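Data deposition worksheet. Section B asks for the primary sequence of the deposited chain exactly as it was used as input, without tags or linkers unless they were present during the calculation. Section C holds the resulting structure in token form. Section D is free text for depositor observations; keep each observation to a single sentence. Incomplete worksheets are returned to the depositor.
Section A, Depositor: J.P.
Section B:
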Amino acid sequence: MWYECKIKYRKTDETGLQKMATEPYLVDALSYTEAESRINEEMSAYISEEFKITNIKVANFAEIHPFENCDRWFKSKVSLLAYDEESGKERKTNMYILLQANDVKEAFDNTTTVMKGTMGDYSIPAITESPILDVFPYFSGEEGELEQIEKFNALKASKPELAAEIEDDMEFEPATEEATV
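Section C:
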């Protein structure tokens, strides 16, 4: 689950003046408590002075996609189109994807790349630049973790096979009257 954490700290701008800035970051965590702990850990590596966490909220992103050689994050609204057979109407389900790009056109191209394997129809009604400065995914640091994550995602995406009906070959002796009394 992704949490958006807002950090307030004293920032030095291009002119050398210090001013207070509040900036959002995204962190992968299981709970608000873990999100707070992780953002403290991650930000202490970047900010030497004191900083304050002003807000933590659940981010509504279905997917996060980093791309190489890109420096900004964009929020793409993707409308999945589905036909409802009962009502005979077309339904739209919106999802939001956070992805990296250098400009809006590249963000559109990257969204199209991400959605390439989608079987159903979709449209991209909006792409906006996100204020999020950085994304901190969860890594345990163990070797082979990426391979395990790929296997997990493949399993999660696969459909379970229908189990063949199992024949019961076990035989039981009929109960005697003594056993039932």
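Section D:
Residues 155-170, 176-181 have pLDDT under 50 and may be disordered.
The radius of gyration is 25 Å.
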